[in-house]
Write a structure and sequence with these properties.
By secondary structure, this protein is of the alpha/beta class. It is about 45% helix and about 15% strand. Helix 1 packs across helix 9 (about 195-205). It binds BIS(adenosine)-5'-pentaphosphate.
Length: about 210
Amino acid sequence: MRLVFVGPPGAGKGTQAKVVCAKWGIPQISTGDMLRSAKADGKLPAELVAKMAAGALVPDSVVIGLIDERTQAPDCKAGFLLDGFPRTVPQAKALAETLAKRGQKLDVVVALEVPRELLIERAVLRRTDKRTGQIYHLKYSPPPPGAELEHRADDHEEVVRKRLDTYEAMTAELLPFYAELGILKRVDAVGSIGEVTERVLDALGSK
Ligand code: AP5
């Protein structure tokens, strides 16, 4: 199964992706995580660090290259879940071309839908355990004692607002693109994490 999770910052893509990937034994591939990891290793060019810090997208060519390489790894043979890629129609077209060259295609694109006013709180109070990558929320999914928590540099309110603006501007054409291909499933992502998981699995026909 080759899946894409689309949704605004804080919609729960990473949270739900971890559940689906554990259930199906496929890798979660997050371009945001890949970029943050390159930054932590000092390998992300300064202009891209600045773009992420400002809540802007990095150039299509950068993420297309990352995904092209990553999806050829042996652990992607049985499928994969792309979390946060594609975000633009050029990225979606490049992905379709890459997969077509390998005789593959996407099966489902899940769009997680959450109203803007809920997203700010979700992102600003997010914390991630830097040892395990587990995502927590200080109010809705509190971390256990002893977790080594990180607060993402782009999770401060003014940057989250910019990321939401960027999402709305850049992805306005992406959902119609996938709707036209007949592979888009819209999921109401308001509710508890468990309730949203049920809806996601339902949309994927895997309850
Ligand atoms: P990226 O890392 O992809 O960030 P994002 O898309 O903004 O998404 P988030 O990680 O913020 O949110 P999420 O939907 O995964 O939510 P989560 O599950 O963590 O991208 C970061 C940056 O990298 C971009 O701004 C851009 O610069 C660059 N980039 C990445 N991909 C790119 C691309 N393709 N093209 C160009 N640039 C790219 O949940 C959020 C919080 O809410 C957590 O605390 C969680 O515990 C909580 N939560 C989740 N679900 C619920 C629920 N149902 N109820 C209550 N709380 C919940």
